[in-house]
Amino acid sequence: MFTTTEIAEIKNSLSTPKNITIVSHRNPDGDAMGSSLGLLHLLKQLNHNVTYISPNAFPSFLAWLPNSEKVIIYEENATTAQKIAKNSDFIFTLDFNALHRTGNAMCMFLETLSLPMILIDHHELPDSYAKYTFSDTSYGSTCQMVYDFIVALGYENLLNKDIATCIYTGILTDSGGFRFPKTTPQTHRCVATLLECGVNNTEVYNLLYDNSSYNRLQLLGRALQNLKILPEYNASYITLSKADLAEFNYEKGDTEGIVNYGLTIKGITVTAIFIETNDDEFIKISFRSQGNFDVNQFARNYFNGGGHINAAGGKSFSSLSETVNQFIAILASEKQK
Fold first, then answer.
1. Residue 307 pLDDT
2. What 3-state class would DSSP assign to 159?
């Protein structure tokens, strides 16, 4: 948490109306969207002029979140986004700890700003760009950190259904439905309070997970067909090519959660999904693991990425087949150590 002095300074800054910008990482997920919109609703109650700028479009399965229709998409309207950010008194950066996570274009713009920034994030090794930094890897989600930040400011009485729904969404998604190791007693205490604020947990789950398109389910089927097991390394992996995505009319968010299927196989401790998209000039990679296999360090060492011990992401500028071969070769090399 921020120090007592920092909390006092931030609260003092929030005592009069301000222009505030909130920024999340590129390809926002439930935690990024939930923490950003949850904080936005809180700050609006304090009479601030608040704007949430997302580096690029968010997936349709998050479009029901309250106020999501007012999110400014930097890629689609950079001029407006830059004007808003430049006129801000300060900027909150949520669910990421290095400006490059916003993408090249937005990162270059943010680096030109001399505005104070407030960082709230649970990933390892934060950069030092922010005036105030709340970085804690013991948390399972940034949403839970935002909840604790609200409580530390003394604004728990301002929690309402909209704030609670946004924060609950991020906790639910980043905890894997409350099953990941960083789901603590405090997580459940936080969730209990959110439910008391009116969160409809059944409806949130249905909107997130039981709202698939036919094409998305077909893409999942193709991904499972492409699933390969490497029993000698207790590993598995999934590939999705541009052709696979095109065949099933891929939309942003359609591959969310597919990587987790690789860990459901008995004896598998690490899995990966390699996705070749038209949107990026690289192979997008997600890693998941169980136990002591540190995919954060694995992604940092070999695939230009990082994240958490059991969940991380990366990228490769090689072809899809070359990237997979590299993954297998690294596993073989690591086993010999």
1. 85
2. coil
Plot region of 306 (φ>0 → left; ψ -120 to 50 → alpha; else → beta): left
- Indicate the pairing of strand 49-54 with strand 72-73: parallel
- What dotted CATH number matches 4-208? 3.90.1640.10
Q: Which fold has domain 214-336?
A: Diaminopimelate Epimerase; Chain A, domain 1 (3.10.310)
What does the alpha-carbon distance between residue 121 and residue 125 come to, in Å, rounded to a whole number? Answer: 10
Kindly state the helix (H) or strand (E) to which residue 12 belongs, with its residue range. Answer: helix 4-13
pTM comes to 0.89
What is the per-residue pLDDT across 90-110, written as a single tens digit (0 to 9) for each? 999 999 999 999 999 999 999
Q: Which two tokens stand for residue 260?
A: 């987790």
pLDDT tens, position by position, 137-178: 999 999 999 999 999 999 999 999 999 999 999 999 999 899
Residue 329, SS3? Answer: helix
Q: Are 110 and 157 in contact (CB under 8 A)?
A: no
